[in-house]
């Protein structure tokens, strides 16, 4: 292929079939003997921006968003995945992820509810500050970012 370099192996008479294709820089992957190479690069390992002909690297895009990067197919450009770091959740292919947090995964919030003998719930992980402590049945009630005031109504439960 045009973008690959052909390298001759042995040059003595009778030596055949030992040529190989090599990927040009910065594309690196697997050189093949007597066949085209499989060229590509790990976009997450590439931190430089501005390589002519290539988009910004996944490593730089994810790092700028303080996210982890993985490249599931080094032979394909633009398929890197940015993953949110714990306690955040989310991932996106080819760009920084939109991260969400289940505020009940935050130990401090969990502990506030657990200390009151209640469960922690986050009704909307995309919204900040909406976690609740919820009373355990048969008691009812919830507290916004604090322990709930629990009550039971024996007349309603009868």
How would the blueprint of this fold be written?
Layout: E1 5-7, E2 20-22, E3 32-33, H1 58-64, E4 68-70, E5 81-83, E6 88-89, E7 91-93, E8 100-101, H2 107-115, E9 119-121, E10 132-134, E11 142-144, H3 154-157
Antiparallel strand pairs: 1-2, 2-3, 4-5, 5-7, 6-8, 9-10, 10-11
Structure overview:
- A 3-stranded antiparallel sheet has the order 1-2-3, with no helix packed on it.
- A hairpin with a 7-residue loop joins β10 (132-134) and β11.
- It has helices spanning 58-64, 107-115, 154-157, and strands spanning 5-7, 20-22, 32-33, 68-70, 81-83, 88-89, 91-93, 100-101, 119-121, 132-134, 142-144.
- It has 158 residues and is an alpha+beta fold.
Brief synopsis:
This protein is α+β, with helices and mostly antiparallel strands. The protein has helices at 58-64, 107-115, 154-157; strands at residues 5-7, 20-22, 32-33, 68-70, 81-83, 88-89, 91-93, 100-101, 119-121, 132-134, 142-144.
The stretches of 5 or more residues where confidence is low (pLDDT under 50) are none
Enumerate how many helices there are, as a single number. Answer: 3
Order of helices and strands: EEEHEEEEEHEEEH
List how many beta strands DSSP finds: 11
User: What is the topology, as strand order, of the major beta sheet?
Assistant: 1-2-3
Strand count, sense and barrel status of the largest sheet are: 3 strands, antiparallel
Mean pLDDT, all residues: 82
Distance between the termini: 80 Å
Using only CA atoms, what is the Rg? Answer: 28 Å
In helices, the fraction of residues equals: 10-25%
Structural class call reads alpha+beta
Strand content: 15-25%
Gross geometry: rod-shaped
């Amino acid at each position: 292929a045009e973008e690959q370099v052909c390298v001759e192996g042995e040059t003595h008479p009778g030596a055949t079939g030992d040529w190989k294709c090599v990927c040009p820089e910065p594309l690196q992957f697997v050189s093949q003997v007597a066949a085209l190479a499989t060229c590509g690069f790990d976009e997450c390992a590439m931190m430089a921006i501005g390589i002519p002909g290539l988009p910004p690297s996944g490593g730089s895009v994810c790092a700028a968003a303080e996210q982890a990067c993985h490249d599931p197919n080094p032979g394909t450009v633009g398929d890197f995945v940015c993953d949110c770091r714990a306690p955040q959740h989310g991932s996106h292919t080819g760009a920084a992820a939109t991260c969400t947090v289940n505020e009940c995964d935050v130990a401090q919030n969990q502990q506030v509810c657990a200390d009151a003998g209640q469960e922690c719930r986050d009704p909307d992980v995309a919204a900040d500050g909406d976690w609740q402590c919820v009373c355990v049945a048969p008691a009812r009630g919830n507290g916004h970012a604090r322990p709930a005031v629990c009550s039971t109504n024996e007349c309603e439960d009868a």
